[in-house]
Amino acid sequence: MDDVEITDVDDGDVAQVETAPLQNKDLTSVSLIVGELLSLYGWHLLVVTVLVYLLIQYLSKRRSSQSSGSSPTETAQDRALVERNQEAMEAARRKMQEELDAKAAIFKEKQKQQEEEKRRQKIEMWESIQEGRSYKGVAKQTTEEASSSTTVLKPKTDKRPLRSADYNPLAGPGGGSCSWRPGRRGPSSGG
């Protein structure tokens, strides 16, 4: 490769022979530059190369999964499945809403009954006050009637006192004597 001969084919004779010497016969300066770059940034280049490789692998898998998943029969089946799921969810929502509406209607009915009961009790209280009876007497009568109709209450006869009869909390732990007294006033004559 040191000598390059160029011949003209048209003439048939060797017209000219040109030799072009190479300017950089050895590649030592290039190898030194490459070696220096690898020694400085080798690990960085290795990590970047691995990351690029992994990114390419990921993208190729993603592209292959998209291309295989986009066949017309599978998309039709997927659409049908999604449609069935949405219909089932809508039916479940309607059922839950109906149950909630029924519970709300029952709750409103109970609220109306309670308000009616309160209003009736207020009327009875007002009438009892107008007649001169006390409201508490009317309330006791209504509660006694309600309790007597359900169960009969028995008074408790077996009552014990919680403390003995001679207990006095102001007397202290020992009874009636005081165990602490303040010291004398004035200088002490102990020394």
What would your notes on this structure say?
This protein is mostly helical and 191 residues long. The radius of gyration is 54 Å and the shape is elongated. The protein is built from three helices and no strands. The longest helix is centred in the middle third of the chain and has 60 residues, at 72-131. The mean pLDDT is 78.
Strand content: under 5%
Report the C-alpha radius of gyration, rounded.
54 Å
Order of helices and strands: HHH
Please describe the biggest sheet, giving its number of strands, its sense, and whether it closes into a barrel: none
User: Helical segment tally?
Assistant: 3
Average pLDDT value? 78
Assembly state of the chains shown: single chain
Task: Return residue spans where pLDDT drops below 50 for at least 5 consecutive residues.
Answer: none
- Determine the structural class based on helices, strands and strand pairing: mainly alpha
Shape by Cα distribution = elongated
Question: Helical amount among residues, as a percent range?
Answer: 55-70%
* Count of DSSP strands: 0
Query: Whole-Å distance between the termini?
Result: 125 Å
Supply the key terms.
single chain; 191 residues; mainly alpha; 3 helices; elongated
